[in-house]
Amino acid sequence: MPDILEINHVCKRFSQNGSIVEALRDINLNVEEGNFVSIIGVSGCGKSTLLRIIGGLETDYEGSVTFDGMPVTAPSRKKGFVFQDHRLLPWLTIEDNIRFSLPEEQEDRESIIRESIRMVGLEGFESAYPKQISGGMSQRVSIARALSNDPKILLLDEPFGSLDAITKINLQDELLNIWKRESITMILVTHDIDEAIYLGNSVVVMTPRPGTIKRVENIDLGEPKKRTGPIFSRYREIIYREFFTEANSPFIYNL
Question: Which of 1, 11, 230, 231 could form a disulfide with 62, with the two C-beta atoms 3.0–4.6 Å apart?
């Protein structure tokens, strides 16, 4: 498969209390279409900033980002975004929250809404309001809303970070099913090593600020994936160890 995303020598600095802070340093990353990439690092390492740059939400940086053959200069409907906070509009029902994200001229809007709700298993809750459903269900709506525009890539910024353990496990499995079924490229930012390994078929480990790419580990847990066992434990040990060794020199990773 060709590369759908190319990140070349991306650096990000910002001003804080009169000083210049270096958030990202010389990030180089190529992502193959259809891949599921987990980006992991400690808080403040710049992983969410990198995701915002990929999504076109942050444009003040050095270097270049190319998505689907075109420079990334702004958000687009081909790049879906799911945040830790579901960001649903509380005065709209589930189906209206999804409808709100679709252009009025969109053909078959109603069938798209129905399919998006079906995809995340929320049939029967179309008329519910955000305050009437759980946090896990709200994140399902957020994922459905992002998928309703048929994006070529789904960017997930710690989408399960605020959920309880059981809900998180269920949604992780649902996300994997969607990825396999829809063959959509996904990039997940997380600080949870187990989540990164279980979901990603590549795990990108970032250093503390300034964020650089320290290691990329290709993951093969077999099918069906298991959250325990010697293979999972080996990957976990490899990635855990990276947080306690010095960073390697940056170079281009092909995923």
Answer: 11
